[in-house]
């Protein structure tokens, strides 16, 4: 865990550690690796119907599928035979780990993920039957075995965010919003970086547009009191404080708390912002019915299906009973593939442990189930198409700013990074995630709604 600076800020799966150490190959002999390779090749021959993949390994070059319509061919160069057992035992996590641990190089991660989505119905045989059993077990375990209790929630936040503030500054915009911006015409829209190229200041402008949009949705006015669950690095709280609001913002990250307080002082609004290092289930008693608005930006994913009722009941308890608004954004699954039982995958394993992604309609239903008649669902805005450009920008910035100075800091905090392989796995983990998420949002495989709820009969304007 990150606060144990002698360890890695990620935890490879036991399966991955066994494969990397060579135990599986030495124990079960190389015949299992050959079987895994042959099975995967057979699935690729039958399963790639759109696009093409070239695999280069020590035995030669092998082509699968047929490139049509100008689609680029994806080239995967195999550096270690460990990749075959990784994929056979878990295709999603296995391919990610193979890239992270340099078992392979890929000509374009983005095109690899597009190839997968284009053929996912016919590539289902990549994994073994045993991996399906593990997937079903992990989905039940994440839903019901208490991994979202206050202690584990804090550990998950430390895992995801207490790496180094300077590390996040290496790829985020100046205000350090680690969430989806809203691109406008001034930045040439959601594809501006592809059509005219990225321009300095574009990401910052898009993030400020998102912040101001959410503040408007929350109907904040000077003198209002805002509760924010999920502080990030303070951009939303500082913007609301500059408007004239008083803000109580809640985080489980010691690193974030320190920087929010520092940045609030620099912005001259420290007297209007209080940062609380606590779980949302342990808010101060004097918060009861004290707030005019609640804002939670891409935090609710960490709550978990089991605790969503508690989460919304806490918000209901904290907001004023007659005049209050709640604005929530969250990565979500679209309705056609949403399930309350969600199994382990690359992002849950290596970035946000055990997150639960609601759908647009399921979250609205959860609010009403938890707090019947206490909130009116007034607006749903889809931010999905705005995310891919942000993820591309974050990836470009990280590659540019992964400097010797940053590496030295990471190695001091995490001595394991003094090993070149471990450091490169960490860097690749992030670049893989940016491309993985970019394609998911660009294809609508993953979505990002913004929900607004308010108290009954709390109209925004009186027109009568």
TrEMBL record:
InterPro entries given for it? CFA/CMAS, CMAS, SAM-dependent_MTases_sf
An example Gene Ontology molecular-function term: methyltransferase activity
Q: What's any GO biological process attached to this entry?
A: methylation
- Keyword Transcription regulation part of the UniProt annotation: no
Q: Name one Pfam family in it.
A: CMAS
Membrane spanning segments where?
none
Q: Which UniProt keywords apply?
A: Lipid metabolism, Methyltransferase, S-adenosyl-L-methionine, Transferase
Keyword match S-adenosyl-L-methionine: yes
What family does this chain come from, according to its entry?
Answer: Belongs to the CFA/CMAS family.
> What is the official name of this protein in its record?
CFS1-like protein
